[in-house]
Amino acid sequence: xxxxxxVSINPNFGAEGAEIEVSGSYFGSKKPSVYMxxxxxxxxxxxxxxxxxxxxxxxxPGTTYxxxxxxxxxxxxxxxxxxxx
Length: 85
Hints:
Elements: E1 5-10, E2 19-25, E3 33-36, E4 39-40, E5 42-46, E6 50-54, E7 64-70, E8 75-83
Antiparallel strand pairs: 1-2, 2-6, 3-4, 3-7, 5-6, 7-8
């Protein structure tokens, strides 16, 4: 098995409550965890190469957060991956 990889995030910025799509690979067949900074995000859907999640509440506008995807095998972090508007 291989740890997850992040290729892109779309849209590349957003506000709390926005639904975001992470593209990549090796996300797994079981629901992964997604974090923005230290806040856990609600995962709406996922498959091996796409995750849709919701930007959590109380994220500071004007701040850029690391985005981390974790599954059974490991984790990957996109440093400064998502600015909140």
